[in-house]
Amino acid sequence: MATNLRVTGIRRGSREIVVVACLCLLTGCSDRHKTYPVHGKVQFKSGGPVRVGTIELKSREHDIQARGTLNTDGTFKLTTYEDGDGAIAGKHGCVVVQFVMAEGIQGHRPSTIGVIDRRYNSYATSGLEIEISPKGKNEITIEVEGLRASQPDGPHKH
């Protein structure tokens, strides 16, 4: 099947880029890596679910990230390109991030209940690694430690 494309008003070098982009759209070529469904749960080592936050995996090989939002029961489903498509195969670093807003709330009494240790919000300090398989179920459980009452409110330091 021959397709005759005519592109006008574009410089010669840019015209080739437009033609290649159009051909990619027509033929379905993409630089996307294949993804595999991933779901699971984030829970405290004491057993209770982490009720708020996000989880993110970053491929060690391709530097591609997959993300998910934690439900109130600690469960999540990962997304890389499209909602719920999962993550690419291989080893991934993992972080679990919570945003806990307490500044400026009159009468607020800080609590560490339900708050994870801040080390889990950085790939450099989380210590979490997940392997996604192209075969079988990718159902993962991640256990994290809670923030201790004695930890300072500032960034986590080692």
Structural class: mainly beta
**Distance between the amino and carboxyl termini:** 62 Å
Uncertain stretches: 3-8, 19-24, 153-158
* Net shape: elongated
Order of helices and strands: HEEEEEEEEE
Largest sheet entry: 4 strands, antiparallel
- Structure summary, number of beta strands: 9
As a percent range, the share of strand residues is: 25-35%
The rounded Rg comes to 22 Å
State mean pLDDT (0 to 100 scale). 80
Helix coverage percent: 10-25%
Number of helices: 1
Describe the structure.
This protein has 158 residues and is mainly beta. It is built from one helix and nine strands; from the N terminus they run αβββββββββ. It is elongated, with a radius of gyration of 22 Å. The strands form three sheets. A four-stranded antiparallel β-sheet has the order 4-3-7-8, with no helix packed on it. A three-stranded mixed β-sheet has the order 5-2-9, with no helix packed on it. The chain has one helix spanning 12-27, and strands spanning 35-36, 39-44, 54-59, 65-69, 75-77, 87-88, 90-97, 128-132, 139-144. β3 (54-59) and β4 (65-69) form a beta hairpin. 10% of the residues lie in helices and 27% in strands. The model is unreliable at 3-8, 19-24 and 153-158 (pLDDT under 50). The longest helix has 16 residues, at 12-27.
Features:
158 residues; mainly beta; four-stranded antiparallel β-sheet; 1 helix; 9 strands; disordered N terminus
Give the SSE map.
Elements: H1 12-27, E1 35-36, E2 39-44, E3 54-59, E4 65-69, E5 75-77, E6 87-88, E7 90-97, E8 128-132, E9 139-144
Parallel strand pairs: 2-9
Antiparallel strand pairs: 1-6, 2-5, 3-4, 3-7, 7-8
